[in-house]
Specification:
The chain is an alpha/beta fold and 264 residues long. It has two domains: 4-103 and 175-251, Rossmann fold; 109-171, Alpha-Beta Complex (Hypothetical Protein Ta0175, Chain: A, domain 2). It is built from ten helices and twelve strands. It has helices at residues 15-19, 24-36, 51-60, 98-108, 112-118, 151-155, 177-188, 205-208, 222-228, 241-251, and strands at residues 9-13, 41-46, 77-80, 85-90, 93-96, 125-127, 136-140, 159-163, 167-171, 195-199, 213-218, 234-240. It has an eight-stranded mixed beta sheet, sandwiched between helices. It is globular.
């Protein structure tokens, strides 16, 4: 297996609306291209999803609910749970990397139950069913939400992130997708000039703020489009999802044999 430091190109991508976005044909073209170049192309999922979802997605095609059987390729590494998980992949399992997660555990300081107590009766917030290790996540109703409810969390050094127009995440201070990805890249000895990040919602913003080449895929949230408009290496793609990623690979000339353009 090729060492990560020797990869020609690394795709670090969000999942929903990005790597899993676009038509079945567009996704299949990108996924097959990755598989054909697997020895030289690294794949990192940078997502709000948890490890169990990724194992199902790549193991048996959990995206079949989209009406097709285009199964995603396995990533080499995962920055999951909005940056609060940093993991490798071994034998079909997503395995957290303890040394890279130490700062996350310290910043979180096992405050999940305290957060739940603070927000127990907060208007416009309903806790999500999934339990995460280093974050607490809610369904967010902007009409009922009172920003004052999260002030004690912010004063305690935690970060509050709203995305997709319907989710609110409470995260360890300073921990998000971008910083966690940069820690992983540094640990692996990857040349940052060979990395493309891709996303479509506001919780992807810190990836684009790293200065890495970026694909803001077609159909992205307007708030992300506004926030990345003046970032010199954030390409606002015309094509959606996987096709937008392929568009950016070509635009940045990140591989000598890029995936072809599919407009539908």
């Amino acid at each position: 297996m090729t060492s990560p430091a020797d990869w020609t190109f690394v795709l670090a991508t969000d999942l929903d609306g990005t790597f899993l976005g676009g038509s079945a044909a567009q996704r299949e073209e990108l996924y097959d291209w990755i598989r054909r170049h697997r020895d030289e192309v690294g794949l990192v999922f940078v997502t709000g999803r948890d490890p169990e979802y990724i194992e199902a997605l790549c193991g048996d095609g959990a995206d079949a609910w989209r009406g097709d059987r285009v199964v995603a390729p396995w990533p080499d590494f995962v920055v999951g749970d909005v940056g609060t998980t940093i993991a490798g992949v071994q034998g079909g399992r997503v395995v957290p990397l303890d040394d890279l997660e130490a700062h996350i555990r310290d910043a979180w300081d096992d405050r999940g139950e305290w957060i739940r107590e603070v927000l127990r009766d907060a208007p416009g917030l309903v806790e999500q069913d999934t339990t995460f290790r280093h974050r607490v996540s809610y369904h967010w109703d902007p009409d009922a939400y009172d920003p004052e409810s999260v002030r004690p969390l912010e004063e305690a050094g935690l970060d509050v992130l709203i995305s997709h127009g319907c989710y609110l995440d409470v995260l360890p201070g300073g921990v998000s997708k971008g910083p966690s990805l940069m820690r992983l890249i540094a640990q692996l000895g990857i040349d940052a000039e060979r990395v493309l990040v891709a996303g479509d919602t506001l919780n992807d913003l810190t990836m684009f703020q790293t200065g890495l080449a970026g694909a803001v895929v077609g159909g992205a949230e307007q708030v992300l489009l506004d926030a990345t408009r003046d970032l010199p290496r954030a390409l606002q793609c015309s094509l959606p999802g996987a096709a937008g990623i392929a568009e950016a690979i070509r635009a940045f000339a990140l591989h000598p044999d890029p995936p072809q353009e599919l407009t539908s």
